[in-house]
Amino acid sequence: MPMSRGVLCALAGFVLAVFSCPGPVVAGESGVASPSPVDAAPHIDAALAAPRIDAALAPYIVGAKRSGYVYALPETRAMQDDEIMNPGFAWVERGRGLWTEVEGANGKSCASCHGPVESMAGKAVSYPKWKASMNRPVTVERQINFCRVAAMKAEPWEHESPQLLAMTTLIKQQSRGLPMSMADDGPMREWIDRGKALYFARRGQLDMSCKHCHDDHPGEKLRAETLSQAHVNGFPTYRLGWQGLGSLHRRLETCYEQMRAETYPLGSDEYVALEIFLTDRGRGLPIETPSVRR
Amino acid sequence: MADENKPRVRVPKTAKKGEIFEVKTSVTHPMENGSRKDKDGNVVPRNIINKLVVKYNGKDVFGGDFGTAVSANPFLSFHLKAEESGKIDLTWTDESGAVFTTTETITVEG
Question: Where are the domains of chain A?
Fold first, then answer.
């Protein structure tokens, strides 16, 4: 510890000088030269450059991919991790109520076919998923409505309705901690490319694309906000700014609004394509639903 | 959606006599502050939770009067001292007169 000793000597010299101790005090008296600022600089640089990554964050980092959790403040992370503090769990509980609620002409509930909701464990990791019968990919939301219409003969829930949010959150929460692993072959390839084109397309009065924030400046500030890498593993997410839970499509809409661009309808093919591209881009990150973000 | 505003509470199942334990609670409530307008421009009437009463075996141990500065879906945590086994009742009242209650039980050992 040559440096700290040197610093101590220098400090002692300072204190003695202040108290006008007789006789000259030489910092190097102890035989260790006090470091010059030039010597100290590399040490400080190394400390600043060293990534301040907590071991608790390790599950949220996969290679260069960092979940939004990593960029969140410790207080926000603590909120997400505690089931009572995390307001998103209120939607999980509502979803539980809806799971066994009989609706529609067939007199069925979700539980009639699927049994307990725990049977959904691990299902959400492969969504959005190609559905050959519909000749299109389906999101968890769309699959829920497909079940409601086809199996239950009930009315589909509107996108962003409290019921659809609650059910989506409940189902995705069953896969909490499991890595996103959507299929990227066959017809899904085309949708990934379509989403990619949207991701890199400049839009709106600010003439920005998603890339200009989330690929170029993650971790940096946009006014008071910290930009993230735009991963989708935490959706539906409880946003403190919304004081409520919202879907990924609502978040995409918000981003488009912030770019002063025209938005697409929630659940539209454009948002589905972006969702597919972003899911592919964040492959391997654990599902965090319901996450808490600023 | 009958359990729309069901409060969520966490109380330890057991505690030693004299131990200080934490109670965490959260309730889903929009906490309308009365200055928001709906799609048609009509003012959404103010409706916030304005009272919480916590009773431990019927005795008042904690409570609060809330104002407009409290966020939607309020979360609270507080500490109680374990005296005897029994029930902890939480009662939230909002301005529309709705009352949300939950009862938790705790076993005090020793």
Answer: 2-49, 55-293
Q: Is A9 a catalytic residue?
A: no
| Interface TM-score (ipTM) > 0.90 | no
DSSP string, A188-223: HHHHHHHHHHHHTS-BTTTTB-HHHHHTT-TTSEET
The residue in chain B having the minimum alpha-carbon distance to the alpha carbon of residue A89 is: B8
Distance in angstroms (rounded) separating the CA atoms of residues A88 and A90: 5
Tens place of pLDDT for every residue, chain A, 294 residues? 344 444 444 444 444 344 444 444 444 444 444 444 444 445 555 544 445 667 888 899 999 999 999 999 999 999 999 988 999 999 999 999 999 999 999 999 999 999 999 999 999 999 999 999 999 999 999 999 999 999 999 999 999 999 999 999 999 999 999 999 999 999 999 999 999 999 999 999 999 999 999 999 999 998 888 999 999 999 999 999 998 999 999 999 999 999 999 999 999 999 999 999 999 999 999 999 999 999
At the topology level, CATH places domain A55-293 in Cytochrome Bc1 Complex; Chain D, domain 2 (1.10.760)
Query: With contacts defined as CB-CB under 8 Å, which chain B residues touch A85?
Result: 24, 26, 75, 77
The span from the CA of B73 to the CA of B76, in Å, is 10
| Chain B touched by A98 (CB under 8 Å) | yes
From B1, B4, B8, residue closest to A89, measured CB to CB: B8
Domains in chain B, ordered, with CATH? 8-33+46-109 (2.60.40.10)
**Pick among A75, A84, A91 to test the B interface (most B CBs inside 10 A):** A84
The answer to whether the beta carbons of residues B26 and A91 sit under 8 Å apart is no
* B16, B25 Cβ separation under 8 angstroms: no
Minimal CA separation from A163 to chain B, in Å: 8
B9 interaction partners in chain A (CB closer than 8 Å):
84
The amino acid sitting at A34 is S
In B, which residues are within 8 Å of A83 by CB distance? 8, 10
Phi, psi of B15 (to 5 degrees): -150, 155
